[in-house]
Amino acid sequence: MDRDEEMGHGDRSLLFIGDEDDDLEADRDGGSTPSSDPGSFSDRSDPPSVDDIDEDDDDVVGDGRRAPRDDDDDQRGTWPQSFRQSIDMMSAVPSPAMSSIITAASPNLGRLAAVGSSLLKRATSSAVGQEGSSLPLSRPLLPPSSLSQLSTASGPPVRDSADSLPPRARPPPPPLQGESVVPPPLPRPSSACLRSNYIDLPPPSTRCGQKQAILNGLNVLCGVGILTTSYGIKQGGWLSLILLPLLGCCSCYTGLLLKKCIDSSPSIDTYPDIGQAAFGIYGRIFVSVVLYLELYACGVEYITLLGDSLSSVFPSADLAFGGIYLNAHNLFAITMALAILPSVWLKNLRLLSYLSAGGVIATTTVIVCLFWVGIGEGVGFHPGGTALNLTHFPVALGLYGYCYSGHSVFPNIYSSMEERPKFTFVLLFCFIVVTFVYAGVAVAGFLMFGESTMSQFTLNMPQQFIPSKIAIGMTIINPYTKYALTLTPVALSIEEALPRRMQTYQVGMCVRTALVASTVVVALTFPYFALVMALLGSVFTMLVALILPCACYLSIKKGSTPLWEVVLCITIILLGILCACVGSYTSVSQMISR
Q1: Domain spans in the chain, listed from the N-terminal domain onward
Q2: How many Å apart are CA 58 and CA 66, to the nearest integer?
Q3: Vertex 136: Cα angle to 130 and 138 (nearest 5)
Q4: DSSP character string of 483-537
Q5: What is the pLDDT at residue 34?
Q6: Distance, CA of 56 to CA of 68 (rounded, Å)
Q7: Where is this chain compositionally biased, Acidic residues type (predicted)?
Q8: Rounded Cα–Cα distance for residues 287 and 121 (Å)
Q9: In angstroms, rounded to a whole number, what is the distance separating the alpha carbons of residues 491 and 499?
Q10: Which of the listed residues 61, 193, 239, 360 has the most CB atoms within 10 Å of its CB?
């Protein structure tokens, strides 16, 4: 019998839980609930109770029955429930702490620790009972706020032993017949998360320091978009570089608007939560669909990048079979998709989070190799190019806009920080660093290769040099490690929307296989890396990074926003709409002409 069946949920494949429900239920009935961090999973070592089995009802009334609670019912029915966990996997660079490594390598250690903790409680309680001070074993550890209130009303707390255990308060008097039990207020509800019985999802991040948040932000912003910045100068001219700081400032400001939206309510933790708070359930669904479409399109770009990079190393590779001819690009795109497929099938999704660090390492290595070829291998830097090319300027706009497509992750980073007031510094630091990095790489790449600059500057690097081979290898490793991380949130959102009887590992494998196959088909149909990226930057980045944050902020803060901020938000919305229309039209027209 598996763990969910022991808890009374054997007939459910996906279970929506929140730690605050466990804490409240423990306060009501005196049950024992292991303490855990907000937003994390709690392993139960006690037998299941009626509250555990009947999970659809939330509030307990005096006769033992439970009355439904409207706010929890609304929250349980919202889609997607897996957003925070899946996006945390994609963005969070794992810390090298040994405890995290042990937990990822052996998830059963947490269950073993819970059993040991239960045995220790019973032993210490027996020892104290022999001295004449009996303590109830079923009394839970209360939150600090509730503990201080009960301790003040009931007298000094009693400790279990001389160890540094939290003090326990005396149990409150039992309620009268027919009287409802009102739970004590909690400081902040933990983020709800999704539990599955066929995949192992990591809990939401809750203990993120300032340095870790900076590393996570750089990991999100420094992606494959850096490969096309030199091509942006070729398309739009040198004056197109003005777009980098302009879009960077606007995106940084809208990132701060998302922070203000989260601060407006303790129930907001993610971007879909912001959409729901601003425009209701339809706003949540719209924001979620846009974010998932952006992730899906990034998966298409990874397949195209893999095909381009490998075909540049092996240009003569091809395959003719049964009347079907595959050139080098198509052959390697299909081959790499098949190689990536097992990572998409993983049951233990905690292992995927350790691949996210590959993005920072790969991007840094490619930058070093570019300057190594320009300075150390004699390629040199040669001034040239046009000042402004209005015809292809919208393509450069889309390429530069794609570089700042990290807003879907910023609410997760902010919600997971221990010291939230430092988020403003984290965001400013990340945007300043990536703006200088993007501008420096764009200038260096175009000065090295001039008008012959290709959609990825790594394709221009001479193959006979060692740093060129290293750079090509990194451009292969980067999408290979990030593809599963990018596509997993999309797959989870589809799987949790399926009927409960279809939420099995076999159905999940079919969904993920179909997603991978569809990205390959789209990538082979539109094998234009730079133009597809410009289209993504023009549509999704302008929508997610500029239009939606301002619209949600004005809706949530209506009536309390100063006039200058209203004017600024409306200006950014209009700018985003204009850039989206012009950039998408130019990108699509160039793809059609080819």
Answers
A1: 206-591
A2: 6
A3: 140
A4: HHHHHHHHHHHHHHHS-GGG-SHHHHHHHHHHHHHHHHHHHHHS--HHHHHHHHI
A5: 41
A6: 7
A7: 49-61
A8: 46
A9: 15
A10: 193
- Contact predicate 516/487, CB 8 Å: yes
Q: Which amino acid is at 430?
A: C
Burial class of residue 317 (count of CB atoms within 10 Å of its CB; 0-12, 13-18, 19+)? middle
Q: What length is written for the chain?
A: 594
* CB-based contacts of 194, cutoff 8 Å, min separation 6: 14, 15, 16, 81, 82, 85, 201, 492, 496
Q: What are the C-alpha distances in Å from 128 to residues 122, 163, 169, 505? A: 10, 13, 16, 48
- 230 and 371 in contact (C-beta within 8 Å)? no
Are the C-beta atoms of 10 and 197 separated by less than 8 Å? no
Supply the DSSP string of 387-451, one letter for each residue.
Answer: S--TTTHHHHHHHHHHTT--TTTHHHHHHHBSSGGGHHHHHHHHHHHHHHHHHHHHHHHHHHHGG
Distance (Å) of CA 64 to CA 51, 55, 172, 185: 10, 14, 17, 21
CB 196 within 8 A of CB 405: no
- H or E element in which residue 574 lies: helix 563-593
Distances (CA, A) of 71 to 7, 77, 129, 367: 24, 10, 42, 49
Closest Cα partner for 410 from 395, 424, 396? 424
Are 259 and 417 contacting, i.e. CB atoms less than 8 angstroms apart? no
| List of residues 6+ apart from 119 with CB closer than 8 A | none
Beta bridge partners of 348: 200
Phi, psi of 351, rounded to the nearest 5 degrees: -65, -30
Instruction: Quickly tell me which residue has 């990825």 as its tokens.
Output: 456
Contact 194, 30 (CB under 8 A): no
Domain 206-591 CATH class label: mainly alpha
* 193 strand-pairing partners: 17
Q: What is the structure's pLDDT at 220?
A: 86
Whole-angstrom CA distances from 370 to 64, 363, 530 are 69, 11, 19
Those residues whose C-beta lies under 8 Å from the C-beta of residue 438, and which sit 6 or more positions away, are 225, 226, 229, 244, 400, 403
- CA 517-412-418 angle, to 5 degrees, is 145
CA distances in angstroms from 75 to 56, 219, 270, listed in the order given: 12, 31, 13
**What is the spatial distance between Cα 527 and Cα 498, in angstroms, rounded to a whole number?**
32
Angle ∠(168,169,174) on CA atoms, nearest 5: 130
Q: What is the pLDDT of residues 425-478, one digit of tens each?
A: 999 999 999 999 999 999 999 999 989 999 999 999 988 889 999 999 888 888
Of 156-160, 347-351, 585-589, least confident by mean pLDDT is 156-160
Whole-number Cα distances in Å, 38 to 22, 115, 158, 193, 395:
11, 21, 25, 11, 44
Q: Are 529 and 455 in contact (CB under 8 A)?
A: yes
Q: Contact at 8 Å (CB) between 543 and 576?
A: yes
What is each CA distance from 98 to 40, 105, 242, 354, in whole angstroms?
Answer: 19, 10, 45, 13
Among residues of the chain, what percentage have pLDDT more than 70? 65
- The answer to whether 456 and 475 have CB atoms below 8 angstroms apart is yes
pTM attached to this predicted model: 0.70
